[in-house]
Specification:
The radius of gyration is 47 Å and the shape is rod-shaped. By secondary structure, the protein is mainly α. It has a domain of 72 residues.
Length: 114
């Protein structure tokens, strides 16, 4: 009743049962490793999606910032052109007196009251 290579006092059924336990433990270890690898793969996929989304947001923000900078630069150019036009006009026209000097007096008729 002893199988080849078996220890004395161990039947063939005991040997089969021992092998079954070993196979069962190995199967559990393999399944645990597969779950671990599946978890790592899913996390890597999720991380990749987050990075792609962040990259898209970063590109959109860079485009918006560049557009805003372009608008500000255009506004500065317009203000500079308006200032130059105002300066050129002031150089041609005489200065307007301010009201601090008081009202102007205009003679209604020659030799009249002042």
């Amino acid at each position: 009743m002893y199988a080849r290579g078996s220890a004395p006092g161990q039947s063939v059924n005991d040997q089969k049962l021992t092998r079954m336990y070993v196979i069962f433990v190995l199967a559990i270890i393999v399944i645990a490793c597969l779950f671990f690898l599946l978890d790592r793969a899913l996390k890597a996929i999720q991380r990749g999606r987050r990075r792609r989304a962040a990259s898209k947001r970063l590109v959109a923000a860079a485009i918006a910032a560049e557009e805003q900078h372009r608008r500000q630069e255009q506004q500065r150019r317009q203000q500079r052109a308006q200032h130059e036009a105002s300066t050129a006009l002031t150089n041609v026209l005489p200065a307007i007196r301010s009201e601090d000097e008081g009202p102007r007096r205009v003679a209604l008729f020659p030799g009249g009251p002042r």
